Amino acid sequence: MAAALALGARGRGRTAPNPNVGCLIVRDGRVIGRGWTQPGGRPHAEAMALEQAGNVAGATIYVTLEPCAHRSPRGPACADLLVAARPARIVMALGDPDPRTDGLGVARLRAAGIAVTENLLAHEAARGMAGFLSRQMLGRPHVTLKLATSLDGRIALPDGRSRWITGAQARAHAHVERATTDAILVGRGTYDADAPRLDVRLAGLEGRSPRRLLLSTREAPEGWTAIASPEAIATLADVDHLLVEGGAGAAAAFLREDLVDRLLLYRAPLLIGEGRAAIGDIGLHDLAEAHGRWRLADTRMLGSDRLEVYERQRTGG
Amino acid sequence: MAAALALGARGRGRTAPNPNVGCLIVRDGRVIGRGWTQPGGRPHAEAMALEQAGNVAGATIYVTLEPCAHRSPRGPACADLLVAARPARIVMALGDPDPRTDGLGVARLRAAGIAVTENLLAHEAARGMAGFLSRQMLGRPHVTLKLATSLDGRIALPDGRSRWITGAQARAHAHVERATTDAILVGRGTYDADAPRLDVRLAGLEGRSPRRLLLSTREAPEGWTAIASPEAIATLADVDHLLVEGGAGAAAAFLREDLVDRLLLYRAPLLIGEGRAAIGDIGLHDLAEAHGRWRLADTRMLGSDRLEVYERQRTGG
Fold first, then answer.
1. Both B199 and B219 in a single domain?
2. Which residue positions are annotated as catalytic (chains A, B) (predicted)?
3. For the domain that residue A180 is a member of, what is the CATH number?
4. So what's the ipTM on this one?
5. Contact A150 B153 (CB under 8 A)
6. How many CB atoms are closer than 10 A to CB B228?
7. In a domain, B135, yes or no
8. pLDDT in tens, B248-284
């Protein structure tokens, strides 16, 4: 299933509004088919893996999301494809909350006599398909806020100079994050100061530069889409994963509305002292309100910088 | 040797201007003597361990610093005590830079036919006796700067409220740090706002509350010592380990003069946004100057908070 999740990760940021599913078919300890949701959402991972495998009699199929139960003009339901293919067993990570499937996919497989195992690495799958799940459950994209700071939380000198705080490895990592998101947003101040390209500058991934959004009530420049408020992200079609890159005002605007689900914190081992803060006014009136919201999900060194990934803890989420 | 270092750590913050040495005597796989420099500097670790062990014929003696070669009115030279005791072997972590010993201790032991092994865990020993070494080599105390911040580097809300950012475990850890330092310093602003007690509030360690220093050109209140500038720490007798606890002005004053050797960074998993910064103006004009100074030496979780320990990298240090 871990391998299927890695396949699913390939599509992240390019499949919206479809989930970025991964699928692996194994028989006699040998992988005979691999699939992942293709850009734009079709073919689905299962269809791709089945085509590769051919005959799947006696095989086990690992799939990161419940196979869809609904036909569409763009292709047959995956549950029907799988029933027709007749594998020995299907192992699934996560149920599909889409009401057109939600349990119906599994039921159809079992009714056809195929053994189904559920909930293998479900938590990891939820993290990998966070954008799709956020769209289904909260009606808006999954939002990652990226901050690159000194140890004392500064993002620039008092005059705005910020090149470079973090090193080459941290910046490369941030570009991989760009490559796996549907859209990137910056605030008006950052746009006016830096006119950032926000493209993916990594060999082999240049074609994966996401859509560019500007948090602004004014008209958007060419090649950009303006959104007037953080809440307006709910209206963005085909954006399931959103990366907020700066600056302090945009970060604060999203935090104030509790619209940040994941925090990517790149920290360089240096002190700046007086300088520009990473986050503006988020409307915090009492420290007690600030506690219990963020949980450290991952941390690693990137050269001499440290990356920490925090996830927003939501009740029942 | 690790056990000897742990014994030496017991004296940290209470032996200045003597080093906080640890000593362990082992024969036939059994510990027969343990010693550490006692409060005020006497007895020395070796003398204490030898007295406990009695006859050390055939034993190995682990000691974290080269045994002293100079007699004093307060006691005999440890090198002479060891020569008289005639152990089989002495294993040593660090040479003593004090010119009255510097190599003479080892030479005297070897001349008496005792085998000496040097440099075992020397780096760890240097960390444990950082205060003594700083005094010997830089002519001033070893300075630790403590910061307790949010993920975005804030130490308080805009109005100054800071209770509590970090949790109980982080605060208890900070009290252990207090118990192993000779003196604690705060700035005038912190004193006026909080009138902090700066004592050790941990069961069993109440008696280890260090001396209190105020960074101020005005007269010190009762129970406090005023120092007019960070450089003036060189004149403080019997302070080998200094802990700078706040606020942003005092932190900046010490950083501006490059007088911070170690950074204790307690970070709570929360965001504050607009609020008070941890560090004021440190006179940084170019980000390039800020790089290469700090190296992560240790990190651990304290409840849901994270502690990071950074050490100042000094050329040749």
1. yes
2. 46 (proton donor)
3. 3.40.430.10
4. 0.89
5. yes
6. 10
7. no
8. 999 999 999 999 999 999 999 999 999 999 999 999 9
